[in-house]
Each structure stands twice: as C-alpha cells, then as structure tokens.
Design goal:
alpha+beta, four-stranded mixed beta sheet, three-stranded antiparallel beta sheet, 37% helix, 15% strand, globular
Length: 153
Amino acid sequence: MVDQGYPKRPLGPCIFDPMAQPAPTHPPVFLRLFGGPRLCIDGQPIAPVGRNANALLGYLALIPGHSERRAKLAGLLWDELPDIKARQNLRQTLYELRSVSPDVAPNFVGSDRERIWLNTDVAVIETDELFAALDRSEVPEVLLQSPGIAERL
C-alpha cells in the first residue's frame, strides 16, 4: 500500500479498515451510522452535533447519490413548521455541520440553492463501505466490530 500522507489509523469505533479499501487514499472525514450517527476526523470522534444535524447526515448517507433537494429535506426534518422557518432551520443545521471542524474538512457537506449533498471526495460513508464489501462477497468490517449487530439485523 502506498502511503499518501494520511496518518495510520488503528481500528476502533470510528475507524474503517484501510486494508479493505480499494484505493490507497483515505479522506479525513468518516461518517459512521451503526451505533448512532457520528463523525470522525483523522480517526477521532468530533464534537457531537445536534439531533437534526444527525438526521440530515443519516438521511443523506442512506439515499442513492447522497444528494437531496433543500425543500424536501426541510419538509422532512421540520414538517410541523412553516416553510420559511423550516428552510431557516436547515440553513442553521448546515452552518452547525460546517462549523464542527472547518480547518480539517470544511466541505464534507456541499450545497447550492437547490440541493444539499455529502461530498464523497472528502468523506467516507460507512454504508458505502458496507455495500462495497458485500459486493465483493466479503464480510463488512463494521459487522465484525459491532457486538450484537447480527441479532439486530
């Protein structure tokens, strides 16, 4: 494996197995969903984000393409609020996510006037790793590291 300048990472609660990766480079942001959504940067869990930020990350991680229209996201997360307030809350949630670690990974959540997406150029999404391992007919590392996951599935 060619060293691309990323630190070596031991396996742990926020780490994926770099040997299971097809490419030798590893983005610094890892979005973990099993055991509850959390973000890890360079192998370290970062400050927890709020419930709506976690919901937004989880939703984007699970949909094909990791991208969705702003209007739909605002409606899903704040269905009880007027549209203008829901969109304001969505902007605040994006600010919260981008403020978590602006120096390390300021762009792991991208957006424009119409859509919000997870930037897979700077983030590894646990579910993508899981499905890639299954496509290779391998047991995903996350399943081996998560006690009791077989009973929950």
